[in-house]
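REQUEST ID: PR-0412
SUBMITTED BY: lab tech R.K.
PRIORITY: routine
TASK: structure prediction, single protein chain
INPUT:
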Amino acid sequence: MKKLLVVLLAVLMLCACSKTKEYSSHLEKVQSEGKVVIATEGMWEPWTYVDGNGNLTGYDVELGRAIAEKLGVEAEFVTGDFTGFLSGLDNGQYDLVINGIDVTEERQAKYDFSNTYAYASSYLIVKGDNEDIKSLEDLNGKKLTNSPGSSYALLGEQYGASNVGGDTFADTINNLVNGYADASINSADTYGLYIKEHPDADVKVVMTIDPLDVAIPFVKGEYNKEFLDAVNSVIDELKASGELSSLSIKFFGTDITVK
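STATUS: complete
OUTPUT:
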């Protein structure tokens, strides 16, 4: 009997120790833990990348740091493939995903979004000698190279393209040049920066796509409402002070906070 009681007591203690603390809201969790865990690729200059000194930086990264500072907590960044970011947000692995995420109807069905913090124009890009693709309609039956699950990949798939993947912008360019893919849809600003550094790259722009709102997704529900409101307040404050515009000009050379 004593052995049974000892075993039961041990089990109860183990359960008590392993039980995750419950919070009434996501904002309470972040403030109680003193940190906000932010997912970002770290491979998409100038949005999110590692600089020559090995430091994680970029427009999205510095926005994340500013949000953390305004909330009075530390910013903890987790880098990786965009493919798993939204599922990680769903299961509570990350508090925020800040990665140049376009606001689309499909995403709005599942997520609430913060106030817009950027407007992202994009290009349809092909190899220099490609004369078959001049519009999104021409993607039908073609191979696209983009990060799986990204808004670019989803847009191409809507027009009948199959996606062969590509973790970084450089990967997508290499896939085009080497004939592994026919086209890529990507950030106009990222393309401009790449061409500035690689003027001889054998690629060209065949179409400019209208800018989309860029914002931060939140899982729908009352648990995240206060957190969303707090992040919106920070974004509004950064806009009003001019800090957000300054960040944009620093990383993009232009103000993408306005259309």
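NOTES: Confidence is low (pLDDT under 50) at residues 1-20.
REVIEWED BY: pending
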